[in-house]
Write a structure and sequence with these properties.
The chain is an alpha+beta fold. It has a domain of 38 residues. A three-stranded mixed β-sheet has the order 1-2-3. The longest helix has 10 residues. The chain is elongated, with a radius of gyration of 25 Å. This is Antitoxin. Antitoxin component of a type II toxin-antitoxin (TA) system. InterPro entries: Antitoxin_Phd/YefM, YefM-like_sf.
Length: 84
């Protein structure tokens, strides 16, 4: 993985070069010499942000109260134990 750094000015002048560099690894974009942004390929971004979603997390999202959720009751089909 190659890490590349661009100043804001370099990034603005040659965005296509920054995009090509992002395929090889993260591209740090600096403002006044300090890292301010990171450009990643979509594959790298998805790899970093992919987490299995838990239902509690999904229900905590804004607007989740508008989601219709009416699950079918689960039946287990239990029968009494035969001790004979």
């Amino acid at each position: 993985m190659t890490v590349t750094t661009f100043s804001s000015r370099e990034f603005n002048q040659d965005t296509s070069r920054a995009k090509k560099a992002a395929v090889e690894g993260p591209v740090f974009i600096t403002d006044r010499g300090r890292p301010a942004h990171v450009l990643l390929s979509i594959d790298d971004y998805r790899r970093l942000t992919h987490r299995p979603r838990k239902i509690a997390d999904a229900l905590a999202l804004p607007g989740a109260e508008d989601i219709d959720f009416d699950p079918t009751p689960m039946t287990l089909g239990l029968r009494p134990a035969d001790f004979g």
